[in-house]
Amino acid sequence: MLNNRSIICFAGEDWWYHHPHSKAHLMRKFARAGNKVLFVNSISMGLPSLAHKDLLPRIKRKLGSYSKLARQTEEGITVVSPASVPFFGTAAARSLNRQMIGAQIKRLARSRGLTKPVLWIAIPTAAEMIGVFDEAAIVYHVSDKYDANTMDHATDPTLIRRLHERAIDDADLVFYSGRKLFKEATRGCDRSYLLEQAVDFEHWSKVKALSVAPEMQKIPRPRLGYFGAIEPWLVDQELIKQAARERPSWQWVFIGNRSRGVEIEDLPNTHFLPPVPYEQLPSFAAGFDVCVLPWETEQAFTSYGSAIKVREYLATGKPVVISPLPEYEPMSDVLRIARSRAEFLKLVEDALSETDESLAAKRQAAVASGTWDARAEWVSGLIEETLRNKKKKN
């Protein structure tokens, strides 16, 4: 495992998000192994348009993140939300951000004793920070089709693509979170690797032994459970509406941040619970009869998804029904993958009537070895090799 190194991670999400993402999991492993980690909350790809229903809530969340200043986690990670200008459309704005963010992070890094860091960036706009920190190596972690995301910000996709390509060209290592992203990569292929999502297996495999959360017990069965982002463009709302008409006894339970514009809020068999701390989430999953991923995968952006929750679902041992994602086609022997809305309902029905107890063990076995510890070990080896090669060249 990487040891006694400095790491500055510009993540694509905030540390405070209730459901840890891949960067948070990996940085925790690196910190526990004896590395100094500075985690920079998302500098975003720009604000949504003025007409966007979630503009004000997002500004409020970001101001709340700023108010936390620099915090230290139990693993010793320094987490910070640097002050920045939430616009990237002009060279002047990007230059200002580079100076503002660079000054704040350099000062914080010095105070924490970070030197010659590995710069880990996971958002295209952080490409502007390359070269600011006298970094020993640059890692670019690609977890989305960034230029296809036109829902969350108003920044020109062409600019996002240009920053993305710059990050690839400058990086010593490029990691892709999804098979579709990796397969379509055309730049830096000699330095690129598929970094599959992983699972905190011990955390999720204990579900069977847990008491069901009281909030779940209040909801009738059967319960179809989902946790994570609840966006009107992400969740297949037409599927939920069809299910409400054809299978009114099924209870759909959504746990997480819900954006404005969701149309299924008033359906009698649809329940929205607020975000639950990661530590408590397994007790909610214990109340699921079927774990579901009802995504609108015809969206270009969504089709590149590699949702960590699918592996977490499998680790519980419970039946899992998902919309089709290229990332999870190789696991079709343990997943029920629906190719249409009608098939989704049929597969849920099939899952609810499952009686073969060996299938739960098979699902868990499919993800048991794919832990964040294993991923962090593999990544550490590649980083160390890169650092050795760069030292030889110098």
Topology (elements, then pairings):
Elements: E1 6-10, H1 22-32, E2 36-40, H2 55-67, E3 71-72, E4 78-80, H3 91-111, E5 118-121, E6 137-142, H4 157-170, E7 173-176, H5 179-183, E8 192-194, H6 201-205, H7 214-217, E9 223-227, H8 237-246, E10 251-255, E11 270-273, H9 281-285, E12 290-293, H10 308-316, E13 320-322, E14 336-337, H11 341-352, H12 358-367, H13 372-393
Parallel strand pairs: 1-2, 1-5, 2-4, 5-6, 6-7, 7-8, 9-10, 9-12, 10-11, 12-13, 13-14
Antiparallel strand pairs: 3-4
What does it look like?
It is a single chain. By secondary structure, the chain is α/β, with parallel strands linked by helices. It folds into two domains: 6-198 and 371-393, Glycogen Phosphorylase B (Rossmann fold, 3-Layer(aba) Sandwich), CATH 3.40.50.2000; 201-367, Rossmann fold (3-Layer(aba) Sandwich), CATH 3.40.50.2000. Helix content is 36%, strand content 14%. The strands form two sheets. It has an eight-stranded mixed sheet, sandwiched between helices. A six-stranded parallel sheet has the order 11-10-9-12-13-14, with helices on both faces. α4 (157-170) links the parallel β6 and β7 (173-176). The longest helix has 22 residues, at 372-393.
CATH homologous superfamily heading of the largest domain: Glycogen Phosphorylase B
Strand order of the largest sheet: 3-4-2-1-5-6-7-8
What is the name of the CATH topology of the largest domain?
A: Rossmann fold
N to C succession of SSEs: EHEHEEHEEHEHEHHEHEEHEHEEHHH
Give the radius of gyration.
21 Å
Going by CATH, the architecture of the largest domain would be 3-Layer(aba) Sandwich
In percent, how much strand structure appears in the residues? 5-15%
